[in-house]
Specification:
two-stranded antiparallel sheet; three-stranded parallel β-sheet; 2 domains; 317 residues; 11 strands; alpha/beta; 14% strand
């Protein structure tokens, strides 16, 4: 069986809503063709195009639900099928209920504000700020190196940040986050103790995927894979003060190399962190238990949609 592609008409004019009823029929045809393709394994079906009426109809529906119009630009880079776009536009807002996005345009979000101080974790009442020793950070950057952070705990129980230069034998995790979430972003090269404790708890549970099987199961016995000890986080590793602007720009210019050198990158996005996708055991089993979990199969579509439309996916890098 052969199914011809149903070519959508371009949506001319950003302010023109066109014939809504006809566009709904057109969208239904796209959905039906995709279903037929899945059932009978037919030829290609038209993917979404930002200039098509069906796509613009879904974008308008998403905006009416409170989506930021600029955030919906992912439609241009993620060319998908119409059922997937329909699902994405029906998903919960990736930016939550932060501000009124009704005035946003495809080129500018009107709700964007200046960087704010990081929040404390829930149930925390203004704990102390943990500062990174800035002198070694400045020195390492000036010497064209990458500063890495290690979280140490003093005998008193207090957390202390230690700075070391990256070497080829040092494996580290790059921490990527959304500054607007006010978790790990700060203009003072320091974070509330509760946020550092939270970050530490996540890092200590992260399996070191670079270890070999012989390290996990030495001599046939189940051991425990060594966790990462060092990490890179822009808040600690990029100087923020105006007097260090040159080194700050130098560190920012090296970020592509930093993420390339990292053994893993861990993402912090508040909307994704709150999403419960179910769990199933994944690879690298040690100590009789799975070392980490992956989303349950029945939730993979939800996970993919939320990641694709997340605030983290809409950052500058």
């Amino acid at each position: 069986m052969t199914v011809l592609c149903f070519w959508d008409t371009p949506f001319w004019g950003a302010g023109d809503e066109g014939d809504t009823e006809l566009t709904l029929v057109l969208l239904s045809v796209h959905m039906l063709l995709y279903l037929i393709r899945r059932v009978f394994g037919t030829q290609k079906v038209l993917r979404t195009s930002v200039r098509a009426r069906s796509t613009q109809l879904l974008i308008r529906a998403a905006v009416s639900r409170g989506w930021c119009r600029k955030r919906l630009n992912f439609v241009e880079s993620v060319r998908t099928f119409y059922p997937a776009l329909y699902f994405l536009c029906s998903s919960p807002l990736p930016h939550g209920n932060r501000g009124d996005h009704s005035s946003c345009t495809p080129t500018k979000c009107q709700v964007v504000t200046k960087l704010a101080k990081p929040n404390h974790r829930k149930h925390c009442r203004h704990c102390r700020i943990v500062q990174v020793p800035l002198d070694p950070v400045l020195r390492i950057i000036a010497e064209d190196g990458i500063p890495l952070i290690r979280i140490a705990r003093l005998p008193s129980g207090k957390i202390q940040l230690q700075v070391v230069p990256h070497t080829r034998t040092l494996r580290f995790v790059a921490v990527s986050h959304v500054w607007a979430d006010r978790q790990l972003g700060s203009t003072k090269n320091g974070l509330p103790n509760c946020q550092v404790e939270y970050l530490n708890s996540v890092l200590t549970k992260l399996p070191n995927l670079g270890v070999s099987i012989s390290e996990i199961l030495p001599l046939g016995r189940r051991g425990s894979a060594q966790h990462y000890e060092y990490f890179w986080l822009d808040t600690f590793c990029i100087p923020q003060a105006p007097e260090h602007a040159d080194l700050r720009n130098k560190a920012i210019g090296s970020m592509n190399l930093i993420y390339a050198a990292a053994a893993q990158t861990i993402v912090f996005d508040s909307a994704l962190q709150k999403f419960e996708a179910g769990r199933r055991p994944a690879s690298m089993i040690h100590g009789g238990k799975p070392s980490f979990s992956a989303p349950a199969d029945e939730n993979l579509l939800d996970v993919t949609a939320r990641v694709c439309a997340s605030n983290w996916m809409g950052r500058a890098w």
